[in-house]
Specification:
alpha/beta, disordered C terminus
Length: about 190
């Protein structure tokens, strides 16, 4: 399952035709091209295993809880950024609740003061890891993001961000894995 505009999800679906891949974005427009490409026949580069879902992170369907093997969150903003960083603990709980018992999370996060609400701290990767740990996910990767990460994520925004790095904005690559214990879910 991937979050974002669908390009990563489409690439993942094409590379793993035996897996169901769900791309989720609050903006329908962000997934139009990927959805159209996925609908093509397999012989023409289609991905019948890709499902594009328009939904806000706060309103994800309950049947997705606990079944996601890979939750990919690439360069989110707004409420999804707050949930991914742990600044909105209820949303962090909802996102963590999607991850299967042996699942993992891969995030590419970047923020600058203009990306956060007044009074919220800048992105602190240690706090991000601690927030997700409280929901049973342990870190497997924590390092500054590279241009190669943005390319792999099929993120045009990430590529622009990392090519023209603003000294006030750092991007982080964070990997997490479900520990099996401590699976806490939002009520």
């Amino acid at each position: 399952m991937g979050a974002g505009d669908g390009r990563f999800a489409l690439a993942h679906a094409l590379a793993h035709p035996d897996e169901l891949v769900i791309a989720i974005d609050a903006s329908r427009d962000a997934m139009v091209e990927s959805s159209r490409r996925a609908a093509r026949s397999s012989q023409c580069g289609g991905a019948p295993n890709l499902l594009c879902l328009v939904a806000a992170a706060e309103a994800l369907p309950e049947p997705l809880a606990g079944i996601v093997d890979l939750l990919a969150i690439h360069f989110p903003w707004g409420s999804l950024l707050r949930g991914a960083t742990g600044a909105a603990s209820e949303l962090t709980a909802r996102l963590a609740g999607l991850v299967a018992p042996t699942g993992q999370v891969r995030m590419l996060l970047a923020s600058a003061p203009r990306d956060t609400r007044a009074g919220e701290p800048d992105l602190d990767p240690g706090q991000v890891v601690a927030a997700w740990a409280s929901f049973g996910l342990r870190p497997t990767l924590l390092r500054p993001a590279t241009l190669a990460d943005a390319v792999e994520a099929h993120s045009s925004w990430g590529k622009r961000l990392l090519r023209n790095a603003d000294p006030g904005r750092l991007a982080w690559c964070i990997g997490l894995k479900r520990t099996g214990a401590g699976q806490r879910r939002a009520d």
